[in-house]
Amino acid sequence: MDHFSVDVEGARPSSGATLKVWDPIVRLFHWIVVCGVILNLWILEEGKYWHRVTGYVIAAVLTVRLVWGVVGTRYARFSEFFPTPNKIVGHLGELKQGRANRHIGHSPLGAVMMLALMGLLAFSCLTGWLMETDVFWGNKLIKSLHALLGNMIMVLALLHAASAIVESWRLRENLVWSMVTGKKRR
Hints:
Subcellular location: Cell membrane
InterPro entries: Cyt_b561_bac/Ni-Hgenase (IPR011577), Di-haem_cyt_TM (IPR016174), Hydrogenase_cytochrome (IPR051542)
Main location: membrane
Membrane topology: Multi-pass membrane protein
Number of helices: 7
GO molecular function: electron transfer activity; heme binding
């Protein structure tokens, strides 16, 4: 049997049984954020130089990803996977019925998670930066909000990782590995 995949950019058949889904910018963004969050939540001392540098790196890659979400490749664009209420309700119904409907890009619930994490990261970067300004230096409310955002990121990131593992098992497809290679099965 002849297998082929579709080149996402040009929609041309190519050899192999995979699709190019996650481009290098999406994958780099994902893994830089993973490393940065691990560093800032569990390894680096909060408020110190390397914690701040890591926060600025996350802010930079988040900015690139937001732009790439508008002008990037097909599966990177927000318009491709924006989770409308109808899509979310439909996806929840599929899951409730035990159907293993597969999504090439983000599933509606995966899109909600991704957008929630990106929003939390953005607000965390903002509050971290504000704590360094003269106006908010030593402001306990901003510091508490920054800590709360960090905890929320940790909870959602762990839920995201667990969901990727469960969905990999349910769909019989290694979703974590696809974020390394950029490819998913046809």
